């Protein structure tokens, strides 16, 4: 049955409203973070917000975000605003997990990942994306099994989830703590991945 853009937008807006009010995981630091109800054929899937994102109210709002948007500026001339306005931004977990005793960001536990997974399932069901961009190991593993980033970065995969089939082009995490995307072979594989993205039929997003 054909779906109208208005119906998709209405369903997505209702979902985002519920997502932002979620309080299911007791160890997570609220509020949940969302990029907003952007109706798009392309989705990005991050790992989890950092400490700045809940305060600023949007995903990839700090240093890693500047790197991420810089990749797309170099690849296709997009600004941060272009990315935010044209891509639906999801994540494995939507709340900041908190800090470890050592001072780093805590990795969400399997139970939290499972608890939060229904949001991504619903988003895929509503949007039926043509292309999904998982960013970082945790996000990639939700869609593609792999052992090393060199096995998946720079490649395109066809995946079926939640009754819908779509392409997946993984990206490394743009964290300043990781040198992977700044040295070989990561640098060349990242460039290859970005080229695959901007050449995809779903890009540029309109």
Topology:
Elements: H1 5-20, E1 42-46, H2 53-56, H3 63-76, H4 80-86, E2 88-91, H5 110-127, E3 131-134, H6 137-141, E4 157-161, E5 164-168, H7 186-198
Parallel strand pairs: 1-2, 1-3, 3-5
Antiparallel strand pairs: 4-5
Helix pairs in contact: 1-5, 3-7
Walk me through this protein's architecture.
By secondary structure, this protein is of the alpha/beta class. The chain has a single domain, classed as Uracil-DNA Glycosylase, subunit E (3-Layer(aba) Sandwich), CATH 3.40.470.10. Helices cover 37% and strands 11% of the residues. It has seven helices and five strands; from the N terminus they run αβαααβαβαββα. A five-stranded mixed sheet has the order 2-1-3-5-4. Strand 4 and strand 5 form a beta hairpin. The radius of gyration is 16 Å and the shape is globular.
CATH superfamily: Uracil-DNA glycosylase-like domain
Low-pLDDT sequence parts: none
What Rg do the Cα atoms give?
16 Å
**How much is the average pLDDT?**
95
Features:
Uracil-DNA Glycosylase, subunit E, 206 residues, five-stranded mixed β-sheet, alpha/beta, single chain, 37% helix
Summarize the structure in short:
Helices cover 37% and strands 11% of the residues.
